[in-house]
Amino acid sequence: MTTTHTTLGTTAPLDVSPLGLGCMGMSEFYGTRDESEATRTIHRALDLGVTFLDTADMYGPFTNEQLVGSAIASSSQGRDAVQLATKFGNERLPDGTRLGVNGKPEYVRSACDASLQRLGVDHIDLYYQHRVDKTVPIEETVGAMAELVQAGKVRHLGLSEASAETIRRAHAVHPITALQTEYSLFTRHLEDEIWGVLSELGIGLVPYSPLGRGLLTGAITAETDLEESDSRTTAYFPRFQGEALQSNLQLVAKVREIAERLGCTPGQLALAWVLSRSGRDGVGVAPIPGTKRVAYLEENHGALEVELTSDVVEDLETAVPRDAVRGDRYGDLSSIDA
């Protein structure tokens, strides 16, 4: 029996669908764009009860918010059915030029107003700082974000890729509802310290790339010819390169063996593992696997029906030990708060 919602946070709780949808790849980074299929994917997600939608101003840049806002407006469910999350902080120009990370209070305010306009809504349910600006005290950034809550423009606040110390300092200014960070069978760094902080402070977790950027679906092989515009072909993603890819695919093969035994796909099994973390130590977990196609959305949704026994979890974690994955999750980790 699948749950109808997951609660992120306890101090400032937000109920979301147990499984969300990451919309980034609909506009950039993962090859060819097809806005019609992307819109159908969002509509199908809402039909399935996947109502927690994730975007950001830098995706596109800017065009992904417009796409998501338009899809919500044209859906049969409408705005009230959606838990809408977006982010600021990775500042870009319309031509894609990256200006760096910006956490200045005046930028926070202007970025929010711009996102509201592009999305075509009067409030954002969950507003994240996309990356921590190490040149601006987190207290100043979150103070400006708190003003947005007071103004009714934002309902809940989040951080993305923030360290344990930053989370504590931010939460002291205004309750943080959720941390968004990478988390999957392939990426488990947050279990060392951050998980305990989330549990202590009553903050939820929104894992992005819960399928290892597609590796854990089993759809990518050594022979897969990704599009030239797919960022996974670049050195920015070391896990997809050369010997690292070969080694990581051996781990995926082990996940596939367990999945076949259970009658599900490797991706569904890997996603079910992330979903099974929800509620542990009181931390609500709502992963946001990204896709731009209806078929993959429907496959991901099937993970909600996969029941994991403690024996299966043990088998998975034996098959994919924490430190077995080859390659850093990013080729450049300088923008990650640590």
From TrEMBL:
InterPro entries (alphabetical): Aldo-Keto_reductase, NAD(P)_OxRdtase_dom_sf, NADP_OxRdtase_dom
Domain NADP-dependent oxidoreductase residue range list: 18-318
Membrane-traversing stretches: none
GO cellular component: cytoplasm
Pfam families the UniProt entry points to: Aldo_ket_red (PF00248)
GO molecular function, one term: oxidoreductase activity
Gene3D superfamilies: NADP-dependent oxidoreductase domain (3.20.20.100)
Domain of life (superkingdom): Bacteria
Keywords: Oxidoreductase
Name of the protein: Aldo/keto reductase
